[in-house]
UniProtKB/TrEMBL annotation:
This is C2 domain-containing protein. Signal peptide: none annotated. Residues 1-82 form the C2 domain. GO terms for molecular function: metal ion binding. Transmembrane segments: none annotated. Keywords: Calcium, Metal-binding. The keyword Coiled coil does not apply. PANTHER family: 16 KDA PHLOEM PROTEIN 2, C2 DOMAIN-CONTAINING.
């Protein structure tokens, strides 16, 4: 499995469940890029969508898992709509693009716990 950097361009979503008072409604737009370090053995990315509540706990809206084989092979997957599910039921769509840059120096001597998903969050 390749190692490297995965850029996720989070474009927008539509038809998301209205958990209460969604910050950007049920059709939010972000147009933000998040960068993750891909370690040996990673085959897909799992995204959990949460709304952002002020003063109360954030609500779980849905989730999706995207296999990374095509982005590893092609280097880039243009923005595409993916189905979001909650309890195995359709609950909207999220549009995102992917870009993978292979790591040229497999052993960089860096601690993999720095950065990556632990340092990133996407809320709407």
């Amino acid at each position: 499995m390749p190692q490297g950097t995965l850029e996720v361009l989070l474009v927008s979503a539509k038809k998301l469940e209205n958990t209460d008072f969604l910050y950007q409604g049920t059709n939010p737009e972000w147009n933000e890029t998040f960068v993750f370090t891909v370690s040996e053995g990673v085959k897909d990315i799992h995204l959990k969508i949460m709304d952002q509540d002020l003063g109360t706990r954030d609500d779980f809206v849905g989730e999706l898992t995207i296999p990374l084989a095509s982005v590893f092979a092609e280097g880039r997957v243009p923005p595409h709509s993916y189905t979001v599910v909650k309890n195995d039921h359709y609950c909207g769509e999220i549009r995102l693009g992917l870009k993978f840059t292979p790591d040229q120096n497999r052993n960089r001597g860096m601690d993999e716990s720095f950065g990556g998903w632990k340092e990133s969050a996407a809320y709407y």
